[in-house]
Amino acid sequence: MGKVVMNASVSVDGFIAAENDDPGPLFEWLVSGDVPLDDSGVLNVSQASYDHIRPYWDQIGVTIAGRHVFDITDGWDGTPPSGIDHVVVVTHRPAPEGWDSNAAFHFVDGIEAAVAKARELAGDRTVEVAAGDVGGQALAAGLVDEVRMDVAPVVLGSGKRYFGSVDSQHLLEDPNVVIQGNRVLHLCYRVRR
Fold it and tell me: What is the dihedral of CA 145, 69, 85, 189, to 10 degrees?
């Protein structure tokens, strides 16, 4: 069974977006290099970032996101992002009216059910949980194996927190990955059990 990883780009003060969902310069690192990260022609990173991110992306089988992210991305037009096989959407509402039931999106009520569904779909591949409220719920429930952060050199001051509304202490191991790229510091922590 693959691991469950919480992941996002984050400001040095711990925010993944402003209150209005604008990430501001948090993704500047994704266009600050000369190595194509994918076939889009848009994402170009440093060699160090590529060597860290590309193998990780290639291992992701399923992404778990909240309904809010699903809604603001317009459901990625029915195609999971970045070549991912499936998206599990944590929601108390059904799929949008007219949604293609054959699309690789699964609408699940509750974080435990979402992680169970994602693990089933991912097999031995990685389950990625979007940071924010859904990621914080997964961490608080003891369902996250690793925390990955792409720390951008920006202070947002306020906004949507990386760990969402987590209000209790959770211990991580020392970082087992620390990589400096252009406009980013990549960090990985295993969750202490």
Answer: -20
Burial of 122 (0-12, 13-18, 19+ CB in 10 A): buried
- Cα-based torsion angle of the residue sequence 190, 180, 43, 128 in order, rounded to the nearest 10 degrees: 0
Coil, helix or strand at residue 57 = helix
pLDDT digits (tens, 9 = 90+) for 87-130: 999 999 999 999 988 889 999 999 999 999 999 999 999 999 99
Closest CA to 146 of 80, 190, 97, 186: 190
Task: Kindly list the distances between the CA atom of residue 12 and the CA atoms of 112, 141, 160, 163, in Å, as whole numbers in the listed order.
Answer: 29, 25, 13, 13
Q: What is the pLDDT of residue 190?
A: 98
Answer for the pair 11, 152: CB distance below 8 angstroms, yes or no. Answer: yes
Whether the pLDDT of residue 17 is over 80: the answer is yes
Domains of the chain: 4-190 (3.40.430.10)
- Per the DSSP assignment, residues forming a β-bridge with 179 are 186
The values of phi and psi at residue 3, to 5°, are: -90, 165
How far, rounded to the nearest angstrom, does the alpha carbon of residue 148 sit from its chain's CA centroid?
A: 9
